[in-house]
Design brief:
By secondary structure, this protein is mainly beta. The protein folds into two domains: 95 residues, Immunoglobulin-like, CATH 2.60.40.10; 115 residues, Lipocalin (Beta Barrel).
Length: 275
């Protein structure tokens, strides 16, 4: 009997709870949903992306590229007819890829895209389903890797000082990057890595794995033994986004005397101050 009363009581409680929940649910107003909220007219807008290299194997949006690099032009409109005019060449896919040699250094190159698509007449009765746009991008002279005794490398928009925010110290710091050359290998020196004055200089020989005009990814050279554990295991990337924001990610494994190690991550957002 006691079990039966418990079951009845539980059932009544559940029913009351469900009714109460139903009472507080707002009524769904179908009329309040506008089918054109997410709709848009046919657009020929596209992005220009530079290939970062075989290691990262992805493209970074940009308006400037290095020479001797692969550039992708990608239309934002899906399921349409596309016509690209890139120099004397014409392409008809949603994205087109071209390789620009050093003969294009210093040139602003116009890229035209024409898009045709069945328009949404319900939301845009005046849309004719046709749009075209022309954008230009610049082929930079960087990187310049000189020969002889001069080992400096000018590395486009990556080198320089950045003022970024550090959540670890709840303040802004200045962090600097310098691309150089050591033992015939490209390297990266990073100054004030952790916001407390730690420098990882070119003597630690950072190996560059992937790069574009706006993006640099690197990994420590484990063959070098005359560096601190902090710098020896440092890796990460610098990304000067097309919106002007600099995004920096660094991480390292710092070994302790007891044979253990700790992982340290640094996430920075800010802007570049100077070259």
């Amino acid at each position: 009997m006691r079990i039966r009363n418990i079951i009845i009581f539980t059932g009544l409680t559940l029913a009351i709870t469900l009714l109460a929940c139903r009472k507080i649910q707002p009524d769904f107003d179908v009329a309040a949903t506008d089918p054109c909220d997410c709709a848009s007219e046919v657009s020929a807008d596209f992005v220009i992306e530079e290939y970062t290299g075989p290691i990262s194997n992805y493209f970074v949006e940009t308006d400037t590229t290095f020479h001797d690099t692969e550039v992708q032009f990608r239309a934002k409109e899906d399921n349409a007819e596309y016509t690209w005019y890139i120099g004397i060449d014409t392409f008809y896919s949603q994205s087109a890829t071209r390789y620009f040699t050093d003969q294009w250094i210093g040139f602003d190159i116009p890229i035209t895209l024409v898009v045709k698509k069945e328009p949404n007449k319900t939301c845009f009765p005046n849309d004719d389903g046709y749009d075209s746009i022309t954008k230009t991008f610049y082929v930079s002279q960087y990187p310049i890797i000189p020969s002889g005794d001069n080992q400096d490398i000018q590395f486009g928009s990556i080198e320089g000082t950045y003022r970024v925010y550090s959540k670890d110290i709840n303040d802004s710091i200045d962090i600097s990057f310098d691309v150089d050359k050591i033992q015939s290998l490209e390297s990266v020196s990073i100054y004030n890595v952790d916001g407390s004055g730690t420098d990882c200089e070119k003597s630690m020989a950072r190996l560059i794995y992937a790069r574009s005009y706006r993006y640099l990814e690197f990994y420590s050279n484990v063959l070098v033994t005359d560096s601190t554990a902090f710098c020896l295991n440092l890796e990460g990337y610098v990304w000067n986004r097309i919106d002007g924001v600099a995004e920096i990610h660094l991480e390292t494994e710092e070994y302790l005397e007891n044979g253990q190690f700790i992982e340290r991550d640094f996430e920075y957002l800010g802007r570049k101050l100077q070259h």
